Amino acid sequence: MFKEKYSKKITLLANMVIVVFIFFVFALLVITLAGCAGDNVAGGGEGQTVEGLHDTRHTQNGGNGVSLKEVPQSSRGNNEEGGQLKEENSYPDNLKETGNNAGEEQYKFLSKEELLKFKPNELGGVMVLMYHQIGYPESEWVRTPENFKKDLLNLYQKGYRLVSLLDYISGDINVEAGKSPVIITFDDSTQNHLNFIEKADGDGYEIDPDCAVAILEDFYNNHPDSGRGATFYIYFPNPFRQEKYIKDKFEFLVSRGYEIGNHTYSHADLSLLDDEDIVKEIALNAMEVSNSIKGYEVRSLALPYGNYPGNKSILASGEYMGYSYTNEAVLLIGSNPAPSPFSIDLDPLAVPRIRASEIKVEGQGLYDWLDYFDACPEKRYISDGDSKVITAPRELMDKINRKAVANRKVYFY
Ligand SMILES: [Zn+2]
Predict the structure, then answer these.
(1) How far is the CA of 352 from the centre of ligand 1 (A)?
(2) What is the reported pTM?
(3) How close is the Cα of 187 to the center of ligand 1, in Å?
(4) CA distance 252 to 230
(5) How far is CA 243 from the centre of its chain?
(6) How many whole angstroms from 234 Cα to the centroid of ligand 1?
(7) For position 75, what pLDDT does the model report?
(8) What are the residues whose beta carbons fall under 8 Å from the beta carbon of 160, sequence distance 6 or more?
(9) Which of 231, 144, 154, 153 is nearest to 192 (CA)?
């Protein structure tokens, strides 16, 4: 009798456990589906307060939630040109041979098995990470060397590979099949980005192993397939805060494939200046850099405080005292992944960035987006392994920007 009662209780308990388990699985499924269903990559999240200043314009512009209606005809109209769509409708049956005829450029097409395995999506979202200082203690705008190393390792292990900002914006994304590009940027040219420590015997200097560049170089040496590159958005008069080494540091960076970007001459809030002063701020920065490293052109701009001026066109190009500049990309603060360079959703003059921090990120930091892409891999840019071939799922066909694709091959599957 006792035994029977006991076993009934156990059965009841087991049933309850099963019901609760099923409920949780169902709830998890609903949450996952809801998380992926919205076009979070293009839609963007809330704007962030940066360096104490809040500006809603970068939220509006940074979301890149461009609807088809808003897309200029020049970029969309090309989709229908010359019967391209038909050709692009399906991945070639004869995969290995297509495009590899004598005299034609060599393309690396994936086999059907590889397509299924890698699920390439070169119209997916790309994380452009924004760092400020590397040092101690960890805070909203400071990442410790240990945490920066942790970020690099996490990105690498999750299949992200470093590409430079300019390679991303021009679509020259050389990442092996199945992997995703990620871009690292640093603002404000503090000493802990690239720190030279003078040797005790006075014979030159060594690189501080805890500065950002040393950590990046070390990671690259230990993981040669991790990709290399970062863009340093600098301002004057003393970028990297060791005046005697300004030129040496520029050369050190450029010779190793890092980029120097424009953060205006004096870290100016461009929303407070008139057009003439804005052009001057941008031109002087680019001019100083090209004076230091002959022939080097600064070609991208990160807006101090994320603040836009009223007249956006002068960010892309302008001239001051005979010196002219061109910016192929303008970076925001933002809080969401950037669209693919081949997507109509990308506005190169409003590229959103993700804060590489775990403090006050309001659910929009690096690790939140890593989780998001783990849960929703179909939203992530995944390479087909050939930068001359653009491969994406068929349902994203409407998103392709033919102008940005230029003479690359495009295939939907
Ligand atoms: Zn700044």
Answers:
(1) 15
(2) 0.81
(3) 5
(4) 13
(5) 30
(6) 8
(7) 36
(8) 127, 179, 180, 181, 182
(9) 144
pLDDT digits (tens, 9 = 90+) for 367-395: 999 999 999 999 999 999 999 999 999 99
The Å distance, Cα 186 to ligand 1 centre, comes to: 9
DSSP string, 53-75: B--THHHHHHT----GGGS-HHH
Please check whether residue 60 is in contact with residue 347, taking contact to mean a CB–CB distance below 8 angstroms: no
E-only strand ranges, 163-220: 180-187, 196-198, 205-207
Q: How far is the CA of 407 from the centre of ligand 1 (A)?
A: 36
For residue 239, the CA-to-ligand 1 centroid distance in Å is 12
The CA 233 to ligand 1 mean position distance, Å, reads: 8
Instruction: Say how many Å lie between the CA of residue 337 and the centre of ligand 1.
Output: 20
Interval between CA 243 and ligand 1 midpoint (Å): 19
Distance 252 CA to ligand 1 centre (A): 22
Q: Cβ–Cβ contacts within 10 Å for residue 393, how many?
A: 15
Q: What is the pLDDT of residues 107-152, one digit of tens each?
A: 888 989 999 999 999 999 999 999 999 999 999 999 999 999 999 9
Q: Looking only at Cα atoms, what is the longest distance across the chain?
A: 100
- CB neighbours of residue 165 within 10 Å: 25
Instruction: Say how many Å lie between the CA of residue 306 and the centre of ligand 1.
Output: 8
Give CA–CA dist 183/353, Å, rounded: 9
Query: Which residues neighbour 381 within 8 Å (Cβ) at sequence distance 6 or greater?
Result: 121, 122, 123, 124, 125, 126, 173, 180, 181, 340
* Residue 51 alpha carbon to ligand 1 centre in Å: 8
pLDDT in tens, 210-259: 999 999 999 999 999 999 999 999 999 999 999 999 999 999 999 999 99
Which has more confidence, 30 or 76? 30
Q: pLDDT of 255-313, one tens digit each?
A: 999 999 999 999 999 999 999 999 999 999 999 999 999 989 999 999 999 999 999 99
Question: Residues 78, 84, 85, 90: is their CA dihedral positive or negative?
Answer: negative
Q: Which helix (H) or strand (E) holds 125?
A: none
Domains of the chain: 38-412 (3.20.20.370)
- Distance, in Å, from the CA atom of 411 to the CA atom of 69, rounded to the nearest integer, reads 24
